[in-house]
Amino acid sequence: MIVLRGGRVVDPGTGLDQVADVLVDHGRIVGVGSDLPVPDGAELVDVSGMVVGPGFVDLHSHVHSIAGQRLQAMDGVTTALDLEAGLMPIELAYERAAQEGRPLNYGFSASWGDARAQVLLGRQPDATLESGLAVLGDRGWQRDSSPTELAAWLGLLERDLARGALGIGVLMGYAPRTDPAEFRAVAGLAARAGAPTFTHVRELVEADPTTPVDGSAEIAIAAAETGAAMHHCHVNSTSRRHVDRVLALLERTRSDGARVTVEAYPYGAGSTGIGAFFLDPERLHVWGLRPDSIVIVETGERVSDVVRLRDLRRTDPGAECIVEFLDESDADDQALLHRALAFPDAIVASDAMPVLWPGGTRESLEWPLPAGGRTHPRTAGTFARSLRRMVRETEAWTWLEAFRRCSYLPARVLDDIAPAARAKGHLGVGADADLVVLDPARVTDAATYLDSTRPSVGVRQLLVGGEFVVRGGALQAEALPGRPLRGEPR
């Protein structure tokens, strides 16, 4: 039994924001109130002067390692879910995570990309991000499906939903010329199963006037036509300098009753595989990019020219890279990122990427992490950076609003597909004891593009299922309390 005593307790589930105690027992919250009696044998933790709230629920994390999840723990995350890309087969993804152990709770969507690659290319997925990235440069999986092929890969998605997937992850931006009817078929399947979709949208009309349909409009249309719950991933990076138009579209869609949610992260650079459709040398200009806008994560190489870009895409299409799509030093571009985060009900989600060491190593059980590791800084700093900018610096959010966007709203996206999610993102009695204790004056990101694995500062305590993963600001390397969050489709 643990008592967190005397902190500023913020519960977005009830609107509570006051100095109080939080009592934890057997992985659950059993009491919240002022001067709670300390039961015999309970551990008393003084958190006076700190902010106490539900741990952050990250809907968009491609981190499938202990090393990467430790960085996210230091950023305040208690549940890290890969829902934009997903993994297939779903049972193997859950089995592997359980066998290896995880510091944070975990879960996965059914992978649209893997399902298509299995049917259209004959590639058997192995429930790793690497296998999905490896097909990025193969145009075979990006083509339209025949009726028989469509039925086959929809069947694979339906199978994985039945086996515990948390929805359907749709990397439409990586096969953006496919028939929109196929996307509507996915939305129809999701609606029938009571499952959300999580979509990296295809290109916007501003970038490609010949696109079969504007990427963001496609979500709005499908949600309205099918009734599916549809989540728009990283609106900041797919919309870039057209984010105001996209946000206005999504607001109209929601006002009309469609079930559309949206997420954003506070960085001007994205991360993907070098073989992605939109990094084709012939297409860079549509977003104002150049080859030297791209940096290879593992080596730190900045791509010098078109010849080198073509060579990298041919030899290693799955190589992770950072793509600089906005200038973070430019006030106007910074304002675009701010407006994406400030958009009503926008959810904070990291799009965290694996940590890579020279030679392709993706895991380390050492802490602190060994030197030489590289990732996107959003892996280590998305939530702390969002809190610093939106709460402390601009005062665009109160602490209550911050926890609503980082904890409560993301958990609610999953309520229908995963009843266990209803115990997350709030501090009600009986809720999961997934808790974060923050120093409100110090919380900030520390990772940079050049030093991307520096942990965030200011997370003083982090409990997952009532077990300390961070204690007194120090990561507990032996702690692997993460548990699966699984879907239960109707």
Automatic annotation (TrEMBL):
Instruction: Write down the InterPro entries for this protein, in alphabetical order.
Output: Amidohydro_3 (IPR013108), Metal-dep_hydrolase_composite (IPR011059), Metal_Hydrolase (IPR032466), Metallo-dep_Hydrolases_sf (IPR050378)
Task: Provide the Amidohydrolase domain boundaries.
Answer: 43-470
Q: Where is the signal peptide?
A: none
Name of the molecule in the record: Amidohydrolase family protein
Reading the lineage from the top rank, the first entry is Bacteria
